[in-house]
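Weekend entry, working from home. Most of the wet-lab plans are on hold until the incubator is repaired, so I used the time to fold the two sequences that have been sitting in the queue since the last round of cloning. Logging both here for the record. First:
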Amino acid sequence: MNMTATTFVPVALEVSAFNSSALDAVSIMDDGNVTLTFKGGRNYNYTVQDPARFQQDINEVIRLGESVGSFTNCQIKDGTLQIVTA
């Protein structure tokens, strides 16, 4: 039996307690990877240079009752979130 080691990166934060017409969840990993889970189950993976800052910003958006979908879309457009390509 051939066993290979797998790197496990714990999720630093998974946010799903928000109202959004587009997103179901946002997962932020300690290593700078962010997964956006859209309605219908589609996942898109991104990287972020400062995961702690991104986490603070998204928490503030939720606290203020602002749109998480709009926030993440702006983060993609301004380059804060970079798509991970295979």
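Second, folded right after the first finished:
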Amino acid sequence: MQPFPDALAEPLARWYTSPVPAPSSSRTPGPLANLPRPLDERERGRGRGRRVVSILGLAALVGLTVVLAHAVLPAMVSPVGEVAGAVATAEPAPVAAVATAAPSAPSDRSAVPSPTPSIRPTLPPTGPSAPPVAPAITALDRPDGYRAPVATPPLPEALTGYRWPLAHGRITLPFGPTAWGTRVVDGELFHDGIDIATFCGDRVVAAHAGKVLAVGRHFDDAMGWVGDLGPYYRRLDARHLWYELPIVVIVADGNGYRSIYAHFSDVAVHRGQTVKAGQFLGHEGRTGRATGCHVHYGLFSPLQRATFKVDPGVVKRMKVPRLQTARIDPLLVLPDRNAPPVSSASPVTDQPLSP
């Protein structure tokens, strides 16, 4: 190959390496130079401005709300505070003032008299030294359904209208301490009623007029137990022991006391029935765990707060409550019939009410 001529190499080298002139500022603008900028470029600056304005406006609104709250709320809260204070005192509204209010309020508000506060009910004192407060006699204990407010049970000496449930029976087990008892009083086993016997099938009559509360073997709810009968009932259900209980009649005597008649062979009354003194209830029997035919007659008031303890062995075996409402001696209310004799033989008595 022949070498490139020197005469041409030098001009070409100067042309290739010569600097490119910088564009001049006085350059004539092209035809697209005056077109508007794209939309996204124009809105970019405006968006930042709008956000700043929104933040400032929100801050001003919050400040104005705080100022108004401090200025207005105290006037609105004051009456509410007064009402809340009145409610907190648990003062009942005066019923008499409401009942006698005039149909239209007087035009002069200053002339309206302030209602007299009603007298608060006197509440019983509380604490260890507070005396027990007995409930009122319920409709169950009054044959006529009247609810008499009674603070304490009537004294046995004030009870009248009683007669013997067996006309010619003998007392086989009296009321009081005995080895045959299933209750505990002053540390001794105690019989909580009297057992009267004649012969199997004798007629048993009501000792007092009243209303029948329970009949049959489901009687414990009216017996004056103090405590939960649930475990006792579950035991009877689980072991199918209901038919080993005595047949019982419980009558509310209408004077705050209840008469209990137990160990019938059959009965002739029903729950809710009103009976008269001397009315036939059923026949003398030995249902339950009894040693012979007899009637267990007990008397107690549901208003009584005193209690008898139950033999711990009976509580453990039968799952009954540890306490029952205290009983009174029925001989305190039954008429004297020339001192009916107390049998000297082995007592015909009742065992615990369930096995």
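Plan for Monday: verify the second prediction. Confidence is low (pLDDT under 50) at residues 77-140, 142-148, 339-346.
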